Amino acid sequence: MNSEGYYPLEPGRLASVVTYLEMTEPPPARPAVLPPDCTLRWEPNPDADDYLELFLRVGTPWLWFGHLRLPKEELADLLKHSPMDLLLLRRQNRGEGLLVLDRREFPEVELSYFGVTERMMGTTAARAMINAALERVWSLETSRFWLHTCTLDHPRALAFYRRTGFRPYKRAVEVFQDPRLSGHLPSTAVPEIPLL
Predict the structure, then answer these.
(1) pLDDT attached to residue 180
(2) How far apart (Å, rounded) are the C-alpha atoms in residues 113 and 56?
(3) At a CB cut-off of 8 Å and minimum separation 6, what does 21 contact?
(4) Is the pLDDT of residue 147 over 70?
(5) From residue 47, how far is each of 56, 62, 95, 148 by CA, in Å?
(6) For 91, phi and psi rounded to 5 degrees?
(7) Can you give the pLDDT at residue 151?
(8) Contacts of 171 (CB under 8 A, 6+ apart)
(9) Residue 172 and residue 79: Cα distance in Å, rounded?
(10) Largest alpha-carbon pair distance within the chain?
């Protein structure tokens, strides 16, 4: 058990509070119409370079780094040969959103990455994407659909997931090397979090 108080971090480290959420049955529907000029597509054969470009566009404001740490060959193998489903949001042929379902622990499915670019925030795009994911997940013999979000994600992410039907069940503190100092993200990313 952690005692109350402040705990110093080593230089170059960041910390976030992580909330884990789950659902064990399909939630009530929350319909959404995809914004004009947008399309959703499950990508059966993703190219690692295209994926990384979109991963950076969507995830840099939230310090996403997990897939950036993988060697490109390993990421390409993961994308092509693992039971993962990749949903792409495009607007006028440009990637604007990314959703990754990880089925490696099936019948449990993890929503491992999900986000839209800044220009799609405030539209119905995210709701349409999560609806497509729910449809896919619950068309399988899924026992549990789960995810984690953290205090570095969009400030409304947790509320969005709860409105979707996910229930919080656990918290943790994640400590990790700052991806801007390791070179995985530009040093100018997320300037509101100072580099130390």
Answers:
(1) 95
(2) 12
(3) 146, 147, 148, 149, 158, 161, 162, 166, 167, 168, 169
(4) yes
(5) 14, 23, 13, 26
(6) -130, 120
(7) 95
(8) 17, 18, 19, 20
(9) 28
(10) 52
Contacts of 177 (CB under 8 A, 6+ apart): 12, 13, 14
Residue 54's alpha-carbon distances to 123, 146, 155, in angstroms, are: 19, 23, 21
Segment 33-43 shows an average pLDDT of 94
Give residue 141's domain range: 21-177
- Answer whether 0.85 is exceeded by the pTM: yes
Q: What is the mean pLDDT of residues 132-151?
A: 97
**Residue 30, in any domain of the structure:** yes
Q: What is the mean pLDDT of the chain?
A: 94
Cα distance between residue 9 and residue 164, in whole Å? 34
For residue 153 the two structure tokens come to 């994600």
CATH number of domain containing 49: 3.40.630.30
| DSSP code string of 72-136 | HHHHHHHHHHSSEEEEEEEETTEEEEEEEEE-TTTTEEEEEEEEE-GGGTTSSHHHHHHHHHHHH
Q: Is residue 5 part of a domain?
A: no
Q: How far is CA 146 from the centre of its chain?
A: 12
Q: What's the CA gap between 114 and 134, in Å, rounded?
A: 13
Per-residue confidence band for 52, with pLDDT thresholds at 50, 70 and 90: very high
Question: In this structure, is residue 13 part of a structural domain?
Answer: no
pLDDT, one tens digit per residue, over 167-186 is 999 999 999 999 999 999 99
Decide if 10 is inside a domain.
no
User: How many structural domains compose the chain?
Assistant: 1
